[in-house]
Amino acid sequence: MTVRKFSSAPLLIALAMIVLAVVVLTLGAPASRAIDHQKISARVLNETANGGSTEALIVLASQADLTPAARMHTKLAKGKFVVNALRDVASRTQAPMISMLEQRGVPYQAFWIVNMIQVTGNRALMEELAARPDVKQIDANPHVRTDIPNPNGFAAEQPQGIEWNVTKVKAPKVWKKGFKGQGMVVAGADTGVQWDHPALKGHYRGWDGTKANHDYNWHDGTPQHSPTPVDPHGHGTFTVSQMVGDDGQGNQIGVAPGAQWIACRNMDSGGTGSPTSYTECFQFLIAPYPISGGKGDPSKAPDSINNSWTCPPSEGCSTSTLQQIVDNVRAAGIFPAMAAGNSGSSCSSVSDPPAIYDSAVSVGATDSGNFIASFSSRGPVTADGSNRVKPDLSAPGVNIRGAVPGNGYQSGWSGTSMATPHVAGGVALIWQAKPSLIGNIDATEALYESTALHKKTSETCGGTQGKVPNNAYGYGIINLLKAVTAP
Known about the structure:
Layout: H1 9-37, H2 42-47, E1 53-60, H3 75-104, E2 108-111, E3 116-122, H4 123-130, E4 135-140, E5 144-145, E6 161-162, H5 164-168, H6 171-175, E7 185-190, E8 218-220, H7 235-244, E9 251-252, E10 260-265, E11 272-273, H8 275-286, E12 304-307, H9 323-331, E13 335-339, E14 361-366, E15 393-396, E16 400-404, E17 408-413, H10 416-433, H11 441-451, H12 480-485
Parallel strand pairs: 6-9, 7-10, 7-12, 8-10, 12-13, 13-14, 14-15
Antiparallel strand pairs: 1-3, 1-4, 2-3, 5-11, 16-17
Helix pairs in contact: 7-10
């Protein structure tokens, strides 16, 4: 009888394949899903649980390299390079995802100031997008009520001449030298502006003395999308008036009354904004466009932007969502002034974007006696693990008088919101007096720091007591006269 020998190799291979399949089913799938979930913020995961849907920010992995902008000598050159580079990266890398979203009818809004797309969808969509290699992270898009003063009614007040806070930063002495900010443009990113307020109308870039043209000068990033400047809250009107306000009738409330202003509304009537509304305004201001829309023109960008708001992680904002945006604004030669926040006097209370960023010039609030306000947020920044000293500078922010909707004025406003416009508006005076600094944010910030009224503190936050800079005042209270007259 012939005995046949059977090979065991096929059987072993089959068994191995079965075992491998079991391993993949039991281990591979959960591991892959866990990796994808690491890209998705906890808020997005929570809001898409149990069949829920939410707004989310899809941040793409490819971001523009803007380092060449630092070597360019004019603000216009920097602005054009930055805007073109950002647009190029976005147009090249967003197309595949946008095509997929449009085929499925998924609502979206694409941005180029940072390579990001806002979408609305469920957990399955978020997981699918997170699995894509071209996606870096998926952040939440919470609607956040910013900690800003909310006045109860607006009362008419008589002119008081030059306000104490304007005098405190030495602006009137700069005016006597012929520098009121002529030829410079400042911007407010806030709750909007009553553009025809007597203290503001003559300073609005969209007013030629006869008629108004809001193209390139106004954008509403809220769902209302008002084609004309509005401010149902009041905060934006007040902060813009601190930069340029002067009605010619004795209400001298702004540090740079010779400058022009433009604005973008990033918060609604309740002072509520979102990362997308903040982003939309930064994108408009870096390259303003007509009311009807369009490509945008970086030559019409402002010289500084006042940002008297915060986007707290406690409300769902990622600490990094706005980081690249603020970096890009600065790279374009636009001065980014940011309120430090009103969570003092505890240490490390400068904890919210955008004030926490190194690229942001964060501003604390002082009173008429040059003391830091108890509410003014302190450093060091621990929210991102940097431990950096903040704020960078300080300015008056206690019991301030400014313009309010309804053609009136109101006293008693306090907050780092009120301090920041002194710095943003002061840039107009400095750059008019020193044209070689236009677009050079590093040099301008260094000038502010070296000429400030250096203030030491006994507060122990971050071990900076007795030092300058420190985590209460930063480098100190700005002195516009010294900044303008410094060699």
